[in-house]
From TrEMBL, chain A:
<feature type="binding site">
    <location>
        <position position="100"/>
    </location>
    <ligand>
        <name>S-adenosyl-L-methionine</name>
    </ligand>
</feature>
<keyword id="KW-0472">Membrane</keyword>
<dbReference type="InterPro" id="IPR004033">
    <property type="entry name" value="UbiE/COQ5_MeTrFase"/>
</dbReference>
<keyword id="KW-0999">Mitochondrion inner membrane</keyword>
<keyword id="KW-0831">Ubiquinone biosynthesis</keyword>
<keyword id="KW-0808">Transferase</keyword>
<dbReference type="GO" id="GO:0032259">
    <property type="term" value="P:methylation"/>
</dbReference>
<dbReference type="InterPro" id="IPR029063">
    <property type="entry name" value="SAM-dependent_MTases_sf"/>
</dbReference>
<comment type="function">
    <text>Methyltransferase required for the conversion of 2-polyprenyl-6-methoxy-1,4-benzoquinol (DDMQH2) to 2-polyprenyl-3-methyl-6-methoxy-1,4-benzoquinol (DMQH2).</text>
</comment>
<comment type="similarity">
    <text>Belongs to the class I-like SAM-binding methyltransferase superfamily. MenG/UbiE family.</text>
</comment>
<feature type="binding site">
    <location>
        <position position="200"/>
    </location>
    <ligand>
        <name>S-adenosyl-L-methionine</name>
    </ligand>
</feature>
<comment type="pathway">
    <text>Cofactor biosynthesis; ubiquinone biosynthesis.</text>
</comment>
<protein>
    <recommendedName>
        <fullName>2-methoxy-6-polyprenyl-1,4-benzoquinol methylase, mitochondrial</fullName>
        <ecNumber>2.1.1.201</ecNumber>
    </recommendedName>
</protein>
<dbReference type="GO" id="GO:0031314">
    <property type="term" value="C:extrinsic component of mitochondrial inner membrane"/>
</dbReference>
<comment type="subunit">
    <text>Component of a multi-subunit COQ enzyme complex, composed of at least COQ3, COQ4, COQ5, COQ6, COQ7 and COQ9. Interacts with PYURF; the interaction is direct, stabilizes COQ5 protein and associates PYURF with COQ enzyme complex.</text>
</comment>
<keyword id="KW-0496">Mitochondrion</keyword>
<feature type="binding site">
    <location>
        <position position="155"/>
    </location>
    <ligand>
        <name>S-adenosyl-L-methionine</name>
    </ligand>
</feature>
Length: 311, 296
């Protein structure tokens, strides 16, 4: 039986880790279509609905709550993610579960500044240009300030995307940005289209994380990079106690005061505890076929950035 | 026994499939390198049993054989990306941009440059180790020719001059951006690797120059040669003469100085020994003359 399965696997996928995947414990849940919603157990169909409702209700106050819960540190985490990505102009980014567009806006800023530096260096290189050529190069800069880079923000929740688009208008981002409604477990894009796939604080809300990882592998070009910014397990035991205290006592209260929604934020902190730890998630990423998978802990493991390449 | 046979066949089909995919990818890139792999493929039944069984058994139990194979192919891919990136260095410098351009020529996305550090260190280190390997091959070939009697054995200073010149000439295509490379090599994080590359290169040159010393000379010779190499490299970076003539003249003078110093040191030692012997002889003569040596 295994012998029959395996040649097919070998032809389809590069890494015959099926044996290992089967051996991994299913985190204490039977495979009867049941999954976890925070600390509750719900059916898989229900989970999708419930998560949608959570984000629908928090959409308008999402950014404010992020700032107050993480004391503004989430901005640093997202900046670190962009620095790790180090995109060059011409990169196509897919930001999944990217709702309000934080990563997308940072990406555009980064690429714009890299492009400006590139153009300035080019000008310095050719010191003896004629006036006509200099004028032409300025025109070129006006036409391609992003150097053909594009970011597609994909989210299953229309409310979050709406908030994101309003933010974009408000902040003045018009070019290189697209907003698409889609399910991370079944992306509405063709194969091998994107250079980088990011998912920041979204993957723990999915019902089937392995499907999302497989979809990520599918839509990435060869050489493409998978980056995931997500809450993870804290390594330091003292900090872990403080963090638990803060999560369970303070965050839902903040949720009630600022957003008027205790339960959604209770779900949030519970879902963080349910997400697999760094090493296990790394193995899941490797199972999807990514190579050179690695992770970097931020703030002693409160948040971790996992990175993998499709080679 | 039967169970083991059953386990062996799926593993072999994995390896065959994996190995088949690799030559297919590399076919238009490096036909020479993959031909050995293709040979392995065409006789899986013959080759796999002996070394294959051992690996297959180990990789089933611990997935270690498979993982080391994957990491080997990852390393290969990294080397290929860096090799392809070298041609973009004159334009972009030793940076992640050059690596991204290199990845693009191999058909990968520019995001693959994220595998390397963003300061371009790996590109410089790869280039330096490549140059050192080329130099070692050159010196070995020369030595073979000398052994076969096809060329004359060179004098030490001529040999050193030629070896260092050959090594420095490899920098010529990148000489514009070489100062940047040197600054990258001197970053504290890179110093262990760059130092070990430098010492192994100098060691190769000394070895092929015929140095068989077992005393402190081993260190002084290598230290002197390292000094010559580094100073000549610095001279080369700001040399604007045609075909770097000034640099080679500088090199000639330094090597001559070093060899002179070596000769002088030997002379001083032998003179010293001769002097000491002479003095001892004179002392014995005086003792004889004054009659102090007579035994009563």
């Amino acid at each position: 039986m295994a012998a029959a399965l395996c040649p097919c696997r070998a032809l389809l996928g590069r890494r015959p880790r099926a044996l290992r995947a089967l051996a991994r414990p299913a985190r204490g849940l039977a495979a009867h279509g049941q999954t976890h919603f925070g600390f509750q157990t719900v059916s898989e169909e229900e989970k999708g609905e419930k998560v949608y409702q959570v984000f629908e209700s928090v959409a308008k106050k999402y950014d404010v709550m992020n700032d107050s819960m993480s004391l503004g540190i989430h901005r640093v985490w997202k900046d670190v993610l962009l620095h790790k990505m180090n995109p060059c102009p011409g990169t196509l980014l897919l930001d999944v579960a990217g709702g309000t567009g934080d990563i997308a806006f940072r990406f555009i800023n980064y690429v714009r500044s890299v492009r400006e530096r590139q153009l300035r260096r080019k000008l310095k290189h050719h010191q003896n240009l004629s006036w006509q050529e200099i004028a032409d190069s300025y025109q070129e800069e006006a036409v391609k300030p992003l150097g053909d880079s594009q970011v597609v923000v994909c989210d299953i929740n229309k409310e979050m995307l709406k908030v994101g688009r309003q933010k974009a208008e408000h902040l003045g981002y018009s070019e290189g940005l697209s907003w698409v409604v889609g399910n991370a477990e079944e992306l509405p894009f063709g194969d091998e289209k994107f250079d980088v796939y990011t998912v920041s604080f979204g993957i723990r809300n999915l019902t089937h994380i392995d499907l999302a990882l497989q979809e990520a592998y599918r839509v990435l070009k060869p050489g493409g990079r998978f980056l995931c910014l997500e809450f993870s397990q804290v390594t330091n035991p003292l900090l872990s106690r403080l963090y638990d205290l803060y999560s369970f006592q303070i965050i839902p209260v903040l949720g009630e005061i600022i957003a008027g929604d205790w339960k959604s934020y209770q779900y949030l902190v519970e879902s963080i505890r349910r997400f697999p730890p760094q090493e296990e998630f790394k193995e899941m990423i490797e199972d999807a076929g990514f190579l050179k998978v690695d992770y970097q802990n931020l703030t002693s493991g409160i948040v971790a950035i996992h990175s993998g390449f499709k080679l | 026994m039967a169970a083991r046979c059953r386990l062996r066949s799926p593993q072999r089909s994995f390896r065959a499939a994996a190995a088949l995919r690799r030559p297919a990818e590399e076919q238009h890139k490096e036909p020479a390198a993959s031909s050995s792999q293709r040979q392995f493929d065409s006789h899986p039944a013959d080759d796999a049993p002996e070394p294959g069984t051992q690996d297959a058994w180990a990789s089933y139990t611990g997935q270690d054989g498979q993982e080391s194979e994957d990491s080997a192919s990852e390393e290969q891919l990294q080397h290929r990306i860096l090799a392809a990136a070298l041609e973009f260095v004159p334009e972009h410098g030793w940076t992640a941009e050059a690596i991204a351009e290199g990845a693009k020529t191999l058909g990968l996305s520019a995001a693959a440059a994220g595998m390397f550090r963003s300061d371009g260190s790996e590109l410089v280190l790869h280039f330096v180790s490549q140059c050192n390997t080329k130099l070692a091959e050159l010196l070995e070939q020369e030595q073979k020719l000398v052994q076969l009697g096809e060329t004359q054995k060179k004098t030490t200073d001529q040999f050193l001059r030629d070896a260092l010149e050959a090594r420095l000439r490899m920098l010529i295509p990148y000489i514009e951006k070489w100062p940047q490379a040197v600054s990258i090599l001197l970053l504290p994080r890179n110093i262990p690797s760059s130092l070990s590359l430098l010492t192994s290169m100098i060691d190769d040159i000394c070895h092929f120059a015929g140095d068989q010393s077992t005393d402190f000379n081993w260190y002084t010779r290598r230290a002197v040669l390292t000094g010559i190499y580094n100073t000549t490299e610095l001279v080369m970076m700001q040399d604007s003469s045609p075909d770097f003539e000034d640099t080679w003249r500088f090199l000639e003078n330094r090597v001559a100085d070093a060899v002179n110093m070596d000769n002088t040191a030997k002379q001083v030692k032998s003179t010293g020994e001769a002097l000491v012997q002479g003095l001892m002889g004179a002392a014995v003569t005086v003792k004889n003359l004054s009659g102090l040596n007579q035994r009563r």
